[in-house]
Amino acid sequence: MERYASLIGVVVEKLGETYKDLKFNLNGLEGILGEHGEEERTSIPELITIRERGMLMPR
Predict the structure, then answer these.
(1) By the number of CB atoms within 10 A of the CB, which of 9, 13, 44, 52 ranks highest?
(2) Residues 29 and 53: beta-carbon distance below 8 Å
(3) Are 50 and 56 within 8 A, CB to CB?
(4) Is the pTM of this model over 0.70?
(5) CA end-to-end span of the chain, whole Å?
(6) Half-sphere exposure of 35 (CA within 13 A, CB side)
């Protein structure tokens, strides 16, 4: 098991980086949606896509 310790460490580190990147992107998408009113969020195709595919909480 010791011979895999460094590999496991790298995988765990990469998972942490991926999580941080995803969280950063999700926060950015939420910020974009937050700049628009409900009417815009439900009528502009790009905002609908962000909301649906980003799995963001409805506002």
Answers:
(1) 44
(2) no
(3) yes
(4) no
(5) 48
(6) 8
